[in-house]
Probable molybdenum cofactor guanylyltransferase
Amino acid sequence: MRAGVIVAGGRSTRFGDSDKAVADLAGTPMVRRVADRLGEAVDELVVNCREDQVEAIDTALSDHTLEPTFALDEDPDQGPMAGIATGLGAVDSEYAAVVACDMPFVDPTFVDYLFERAASHEAAVPRPDEWFQTTQAVYHADAMHDACQRALERGEHKIVEPLFDLEYVVVEREDVLAHTSLDTFKNLNTREEFEAAAERF
Ligand SMILES: Nc1nc2c(ncn2[C@@H]2O[C@H](COP(=O)(O)OP(=O)(O)OP(=O)(O)O)[C@@H](O)[C@H]2O)c(=O)[nH]1
Ligand SMILES: [Mg+2]
């Protein structure tokens, strides 16, 4: 059993006065595109967001075959890493692929590969350039959940912080490019980025 966790609890400030998670992207809410693609690689889906987002996201995901469940931030606005912890705390599977709600080109075959790389480790995290792609990575759900909690208890909100408390595999650029293109990590933040991306569907 493999889980997918979609992290969607951000405020979309660069996007404007509406939630980018459910914003229309070439006729489909962005979070639905992520759920459909990630759903090809997993057996269960959990969406992390705030309470006030549930109605709109639930509508966007209606009739999804995996019947996504919600893991709500008790304490909102604590950053993506807190959202990852909340989402991972709600999965039934041993391993989970975490994907941000703003990565509509996420490649399910690459997610499959990340699950393979994570096996018998606590995480597989891509590093296609100088940055770790922690919001498109596979984690041992309990191990990462606990590492996030420990980081938050230290007052640390940086998204890479829990990694240094885990036994993790780095998926280097060469391995990324052997399995997918860098589009899988493309995240959309502004209206301009939405408009440019919409032309590609
Ligand atoms: N649960 C939770 N998720 C978050 C939080 N901040 C960001 N995220 C999520 O993390 C991912 C990447 O974050 P950003 O691209 O910065 O999204 P954002 O914060 O909504 O947008 P900006 O306000 O423009 O930074 C997205 O999937 C967000 O939904 C947070 O405080 N809590
Ligand atoms: Mg942000």
Notes: DSSP finds seven helices and nine strands in the chain. The mean pLDDT is 98.
